[in-house]
Specification:
This protein is of the alpha+beta class and 188 residues long. It folds into two domains: 19-72, Fe,Mn superoxide dismutase (SOD) domain (Helix Hairpins, Orthogonal Bundle); 83-185, Iron/manganese superoxide dismutase, C-terminal domain (minor pseudopilin epsh fold, 3-Layer(bab) Sandwich), CATH 3.55.40. It has helices at 19-45, 51-72, 83-93, 96-107, 155-158, 162-171, 175-185, and strands spanning 112-119, 124-131, 141-148. Strand 1 and strand 2 (124-131) form a beta hairpin. The longest helix has 27 residues, at 19-45. The chain binds fe (ii) ion (FE2). Fe (ii) ion binds at residues 25, 29, 67, 148, 150, 152-153.
């Protein structure tokens, strides 16, 4: 059984993302994926193996993982990363500004998420665009930063104005858990 995490930030304190928006997202959507994952895994364990369940297995599991990544790094003050992660961004993208420009361009190409991933095989950072929760995965890469671009992440606050939501997301970013994940995965 997978257990949902507790909300790791104060929903009253986000800037530009309302308590109602983030609470719907956390309680209904995120917890729905955890519930869905448990249900499907129970069926699979009983031998109920079919295409629907196998598709649902990765959809719900990835939905859980990516939402937990997303919520882990909200509640901060924005800005830029420090230390080894910043060094690596400069090494792989030229500068933080160049990385962010490319990351933002990816948000127009994705129908689900944009992820900053660390690939432990080529030892590089990559911006990946993901459709749904599980289309676009590279198996040697782990997400360290994730932006949810599903309409359920912003429509209550911004309607179709996705770019305002993306700006708010960056203003609330806490780089610490992102830096910690990078250190954890960056083992050569
Ligand atoms: Fe979501």
């Amino acid at each position: 059984m997978h257990k949902p995490i507790k909300m790791p930030f104060n929903p009253d304190k986000l800037k530009g993302i309302s308590k109602k928006q983030i609470t719907y997202h956390f309680e209904k959507h995120y917890k729905g994926y955890v519930k869905g994952r448990n249900k499907i895994e129970k069926g699979l364990a009983k031998g109920d193996i079919n295409r629907g369940n196998k598709k649902g297995e990765t959809h719900n599991a990835s939905g859980q993982v990516l939402h937990e990544t997303y919520f882990s790094h909200l509640g901060g003050k924005g800005g830029e990363p420090k230390g080894n992660l910043m060094k690596k961004i400069k090494e792989d993208f030229g500068s933080f500004a160049k990385w962010k420009k490319r990351f933002l361009a990816c948000t127009k190409a994705a129908r689900g998420w944009v992820l900053l991933c660390y690939d432990w095989k080529d030892h590089k950072l990559h911006n990946y665009a993901v459709d749904f929760h599980d289309q676009g995965a590279v198996w040697s890469a782990s997400p360290i930063l994730a932006i949810d671009l599903w309409e359920h992440a912003y429509y209550f606050d911004y309607g179709p104005d996705k770019s305002k939501y993306i700006e708010a997301f960056f203003n609330n970013l806490n780089w610490k858990p992102i830096e910690e994940r990078f250190e954890k995965y960056n083992k050569k």
